[in-house]
Amino acid sequence: MAALCLDFLGFQEALKKMRDVDDKIIYALNALPTESFKGQVNSESTCRDLYAKLQESHLARQESIRSCITISASNLKKLREKRETQPDDVDTDNQFRAEQRKLRVLQAELNVEDIIKERSYKTFNERCRSYFHAGQ
After folding, report:
1. Of the chain's two ends, which shows fewer C-beta atoms within 10 Å, N or C?
2. At 42, is the secondary structure helix, strand, or coil?
C-alpha cells in the first residue's frame, strides 16, 4: 500500500475496493433469516464471520491511511527544508503545496473512516444483536 501513497488516485481506488465489505453490509445482513426461518441458517456464525470481516477491513484501511499520512508528512518535511534553502524555486513551492493538500485529504480520510465504521457497526448491531455479541 505504501507504493500507492505516491499515486493518490490509485490509493483512493484501493480504499474504495477495501470499503466493499462496508458497502455491502446490508446485503450480507439480509441473508439472516426472519423469525420463521431461524432454524435453517446459523445466524450466530454468519454474524461472527461478518464481524471478523468488518474488523479486519477497518484495521487494514486505518493502517493504510496512517501509513500514507506518515509518508506524506515526511515528504512535506523534506520539501519544507528544501523550500527554506531555495526560497525562489517555483517547482519546490508547487510540490510543497501539492503535498500539503494531499496530507489534508489523507487526514480527512481518517474522519471518513470513522463515519463508515460507525455506520457499519450500527447496522451490524441492529441485525445481529440477537445472535452475536462482540467480545464473545
Report:
1. C
2. coil
Question: Residue 134 domain-assigned?
Answer: no
Tell me: pLDDT of 112 over 90. Answer: yes
Pick the closest to residue 79 from 94, 66, 69, 65 (CA basis). 94
The pLDDT tens digits for 14-57 are 999 999 988 888 888 877 766 555 565 677 888 888 899 999 99
The residues, any chain, with a CB within 8 Å of residue 58's CB and separated by 6 or more, are 113, 117, 120
Range of the domain at 14: 1-27+43-129
Extract the C-alpha cell encoding 25.
453490509
Q: List alpha helices for the chain, DSSP H.
A: 2-6, 8-18, 20-23, 25-29, 43-85, 90-128
Model confidence, pTM: 0.82
